[in-house]
Amino acid sequence: MTADRTVPVALSARHVHLSKEHVEALFGPGYRLTPQVDLSQPGQFAAKECVEVVGPRRSIPGVRVLGPPRGSTQVELSISDGVLLGIALPNRLSGNLAGTPGVHLVGPRGAVKLRQGAIAAARHLHATPKDAERLGLRDGQKVYARLLGARGIIFDEVVVRVADAARLELHLDTDEGNAAGVKTGDRAEIVASLCRESCSVADCPIAASVTDGQGRPFCDFTRTRSFR
Fold first, then answer.
1. Is the terminal CB of the chain with fewer CB neighbours within 10 Å at N or C?
2. Domain encompassing residue 58
3. pTM of the prediction?
């Protein structure tokens, strides 16, 4: 593994981002979130406040609120959480909420019915412009993340998110972390193209049609080769 292409992994547990309006609806007029722990991404924090997320089948109490407040309320859950709640969660980047399912949120001073906003967050890589330049990546690009170990796996469709106020970090949810047997603080190798970076087949007839970060089409080489 090439050391300078590895990045730290952060597992993201279920959480809620609230609009200012919904902070007050759930916790009371004029209420402000109480920072408890700073998160790795600059300016963001885990608040002391929690809410209950209610779906058609069941509910999940004690879901952490992250701050600061956002323009729109967003509930980020794992696919397993969606099964528990009775919701088919779409795979979306943060902020892309159009057409997503809604849930009820219950706080100590009130409740909110969301018409939309529940998602399974798409796996993504945070990077500064300097990080992106070093790794040869661009904002919005899709890449692979290769994780080693007894349950080693290659994740595709990892979206690169470049911003000045960022910290280099691969974000996976708890389902993905458990599947790969990884934890926060482990490292993953970023691979832009399996064809270009892992395949030695000359004059490959399908290489030109393979899009970076997308796992198909697979050729016999990528199906059978061991990446350990």
1. C
2. 13-121
3. 0.84
